[in-house]
Specification:
It is a single chain. By secondary structure, the chain is an alpha/beta fold. It folds into 2 domains: about 10-130 and about 285-300, Rossmann fold (3-Layer(aba) Sandwich); about 130-285, Aspartate/ornithine carbamoyltransferase (Rossmann fold, 3-Layer(aba) Sandwich). Helices cover about 40% and strands about 15% of the residues. The protein is built from 13 helices and 9 strands. The chain has helices at about 15-25, 45-60, 70, 80-90, 100-110, 130-145, 160-170, 185-195, 205-210, 230-235, 245, 270-275, 280-300; strands at about 35-40, 60-65, 90-95, 120-125, 150-155, 175-180, 200-205, 215-220, 255-260. The strands form 2 sheets. The protein has a 5-stranded parallel sheet with strand order 7-6-5-8-9. The chain has a 4-stranded parallel sheet with strand order 2-1-3-4, sandwiched between helices. Strand 3, helix 5 and strand 4 (about 120-125) form a beta-alpha-beta unit. Helix 1 packs across helix 6 (about 130-145) and helix 1 crosses helix 13. The chain is globular, with a radius of gyration of 19 Å.
Length: about 300
């Protein structure tokens, strides 16, 4: 069984299904009863922090949120020493980090811990796997099934996009990613996804991408790490706004998702975000539920 979640592919397809099933159970065993969970945030967080803290509480545990400056990775002490120290106090460590290799180092430092202390990626510059799991849960709830569905991702092929594509590929959802040149999915990632049986296409045509979509998904064009190139990105992404005209090109029952925060008038209009196709608030709520299921799975209890 998987012991960490650093990227979506750390979970086998059957494990993803197991996590989704656990996420929908109203009562899970208190696998964190009397134990702590370290939640480390190098970047500010709204949904992820609230979802993670409440998931820990749901499982009977005590969440301890820690800001990046409080531990000072490789400044006050090494990443490895921070991980080992937190492992002395907590049953699980979940972290939002600037560099993905920080998570790799934390997991390596705790590889021989007994009992094992799982490390969970709450967002890195490479992937955002807990977001993707919540997204897939939302799609299943809204559409009734996953196999054979189609997602159109419109926007920057960033960490959120990579995790979404990986999660969709694992559960039988086809994805079309529409991005302007220079901001498209890495070719190697596309080849690897297809080799593993996933269906993923890349285009620079948003209208064509949504033509057969059950789900239209977007994310901010300018993230916290992209402020230096904000003007260039906004210029490159003209024509990629998810607005009512674009949604009208999709089948009538299509839903719209956004991982939030949203920049109304840039990657999505207020009319669409607040409109009848939007499921963004259910999507946000599911972050908590999917973390309950994920933490239960990683701690080795199926709740049976």
């Amino acid at each position: 069984m998987t012991h960490n979640l650093l990227v979506v592919s750390d979970l086998a397809p059957t494990e993803i299904t197991a996590v989704l099933d656990l996420s929908e159970r109203p009562n899970l065993p208190h696998v964190l009863e009397g134990r702590g969970a370290a939640l480390v945030f190098e970047f500010p967080s709204a949904r992820t922090r609230n979802a993670a803290e409440m998931a820990v509480v749901d499982l009977g545990g005590h969440p301890v949120a820690i800001r990046g400056e409080e531990i000072g990775f490789d400044v006050r002490e090494s990443v490895e020493d921070v991980a080992r120290t937190l492992g002395c106090y907590h049953a699980l460590i979940a972290a939002r980090v600037a560099e993905h290799r920080t998570l790799d180092r934390m997991a390596a430092a705790l590889a021989d811990s007994d009992p094992h202390v799982p490390v969970v990626n709450l967002l890195s510059n490479f992937e955002h796997p807990t977001e993707a799991l919540g997204d897939v849960l939302t799609i299943r709830q809204c559409l009734g099934s996953l196999e054979g569905k189609h997602v159109a991702y419109i926007g920057d092929a960033n960490n959120v996009c990579r995790s979404l594509v990986a999660a969709c590929a694992a559960v039988g959802i086809a994805v079309v990613v529409a991005s302007p040149p220079g901001y498209q999915l890495d070719a190697g990632f596309v080849v690897a996804t297809r080799a593993a049986g996933g269906v993923v296409e890349v285009t620079d045509d948003p209208a064509g991408a949504v033509g057969g979509a059950d789900v239209i998904y977007t994310d901010v064009w300018v993230s916290m790490a992209d402020t230096d190139e904000a003007a260039a990105k906004r210029a490159a992404f003209r024509g990629f706004t998810v607005d009512e005209a674009l949604v009208a090109k999709a089948p009538p029952g299509a839903i719209v998702l956004h991982c939030l925060p949203a920049h109304r008038g840039e990657e999505i209009t207020a009319e669409v975000l607040e409109g009848p196709h939007s499921r963004v608030w259910l999507q946000a709520a599911n972050r908590r539920h999917v973390m309950r299921g994920l933490f239960t799975h990683l701690l080795g209890r199926d709740g049976g």
